[in-house]
Amino acid sequence: MKTAAIQILKNEHLAIAAVLYALHWLARGMRKGEAPNFPVLRAILDYIVSYPDRWHHPKEDTHLFTAIRSRTHEADALIARLEREHRLGHPMVEDLKRELIALQNGEDGALEAFCSCAIRYAELEWRHLRTEEDQLLPIAERVLQPEDWRAIHEAFQENDNPLFGIKPKDEADALYQRILALAPSPIGPPA
Ligand SMILES: [Fe+2]
Ligand SMILES: [Fe+2]
Prior knowledge:
Helix 1 (2-31) packs across helix 5, helix 2 (38-71) packs antiparallel against helix 5 and helix 3 (76-104) packs antiparallel against helix 4. The protein has a single domain, classed as Four Helix Bundle (Hemerythrin (Met), subunit A) (Up-down Bundle), CATH 1.20.120. It is mostly helical. The chain has 6 helices and no strands. It binds fe (ii) ion (FE2) (2 copies). The site of one fe (ii) ion (FE2) has 6 residues, from helix 2, helix 3 and helix 4.
């Protein structure tokens, strides 16, 4: 179960990182004068809200971080930092959504405000994913017991949460496909 649970987490990171790459790439292009691709940018922000923010990070908080804390205190500071970063991401995405609307409305300074926030956000999240894989997972592998991994695997493989009436995984998959379909090459399909 340990290997399977870690694989699910890494697969989710890979999908999130790919979308962050698209955001970073588009923002850098816009700074160089490329026209904003509003449908893709909106799809990316929708994806970030529905997947990492509403699904991936809360799963880590509730299951992985809690399990590690119950076995050791050596990761307390690291987990506190990762939880802080989970909370930090949400207002940044709200800022990005506001800045994207300002950009569509042609407001002064909106382009630079959006691009700098998008680049900062993507880089912060990348560092976050990397820290989880490079620093937290080795501790988890060392301290967690088979019953912990069983519970984490069960929670991680659950695609939707009927308690909340949402289907984040389905929604995220659809948005992910939409980003791929809309994005220009080299992110999307070759022209
Ligand atoms: Fe996380
Ligand atoms: Fe993560």
